[in-house]
Amino acid sequence: MAGRRARTGRGWDASPPRAGDGTTTPRPRRGRRGPRAEEIDPEVPPAAPRDESEVAREICLRQLAVRPRTRAELAGALAKRGISEEVSAAVLDRYDEVGIIDDAAFARAWVSSRHAGRGLARRALANELRQRGVDGEVASEALGELDEETEAETARALVERKLRSARGEPDAVFRRLVAMLARKGYPPGVAIRAVKDALAAQSAEAAEFAEQIDADALADAEGELDRDSRSVD
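Above: the chain's sequence. Below: its structure in token form.
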């Protein structure tokens, strides 16, 4: 029809916008992920569940990547993740066979490292090994490598280091240092003698106080108190 203006709507016959005409091109919508395989092809089977033994091995390897572990520690980690006892035992037995798990080697390394680094005595180390599930006989063999002479030397070194910054009267310092060694697992006799010897070498006042200490009698008294407290616990 003459004089009729061309349609300028946005219907199916609308002309595409030209550059510079003030219109904008709509952007594609975001946020929706692409179709899954089963949406494209319903015949594609879902992913098969992972084998429990494979999952158990991965859990163990992640645990061992942090630090060496005992068999009991790994068994506990597997149980927390819902691994069955049967599968856990099979995986750990295999790790035992190939030497990935070695509680005896773990115990020896633990004793050496914790004694050298933290100054822990045999009693404290025995408690830590027990908490990690190490068998009592295996732990005893590892602790046997830490002899009494080495233990006494370490106790003396700990006391001498603490004395450099210790403040207070000799009797108060004496009690604090003996208590410090006791917390690290040293027997009363070893702790008292180590502190007495260190005080005797510190100053005239401390030496005079140390001379008054009957280490044997005090150790016997402390030992009795220690045994009583453990029997109550």
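The longest helix spans residues 215-232.
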